[in-house]
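User: Before I run my own analysis I want an independent prediction to cross-check against. Here's the chain; please return only the structure tokens and, at the end, one sentence I can use as a sanity check.
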Amino acid sequence: MHLAHLPDEAFRQTGLVAMSRIAYQNTPLAIEKIRQGVFVFRSAGGTVTAVAGSDGCAVIDTGYGPREIKSGITRALSQAPNWLINTHWHFDHRDGNQAFVADGARIVAHTKCRIRLSHDQYVHSLEWSVPASPRIAWPTITIDGASAIDVGLETVQLLPQSASHTGGDLAVFLSSSNVLVMGDLFTNGGYPVIDESSGGSLRGMIDALERLTPLVNADTVVVPGHGQVADRHALILFRDMLPDDRKSDPLTDQSTTDAPGNL
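Assistant: Structure tokens:
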């Protein structure tokens, strides 16, 4: 979640979801081809990534509602989405779930993401109230361990991370395309939001970055939840910005072999 463009007082008076949707509708949509068959869509909401398949594509996150993203995906890939992957429950990344499901997509997410979407949420630190999503917008396939979807042209690897940005995040690695989609585990050009109200933690965020960075080499495209598409160097700069009192740093010391497992 990246919300610096809207004043906090407006969230409380008008409602965060409503204000964010207004900002989204008035922000130009940028479309970028980052690999053959892989496109990124950026606006005021979370980044959306579309991956071509042999018979329908996979879409990672939706931003605030479908807007022209659905038609943009169709134009870019000449395919309709078969799969919709939610990186986490925050509304700026999954507000369009219902519209994509209505067109036939199946939603995959972390088990804890479904729990959050199916109940009213309140973020105490920011006084944000977010109502439960309609049942049609809930993930129908949930995972707690590493999984994969074969879309024909690409293997979409789903990598659950617990207690990081929220209590249930997914990173997505496209092995053939060498693309890592981070959701809000990575904000390019800003400090992360740690949603402790839904189980997130700074320590868990650092642990997630340390688990995922070995997947990234000099040629990997790294897609953040917010900000410009990036690379390994930008990911390491983001990690180094986070306070960590441990002496060793697996991101810069590739000899480290005891990176912690999922919390």
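Sanity check: Confidence is low (pLDDT under 50) at residues 1-14, 247-263.
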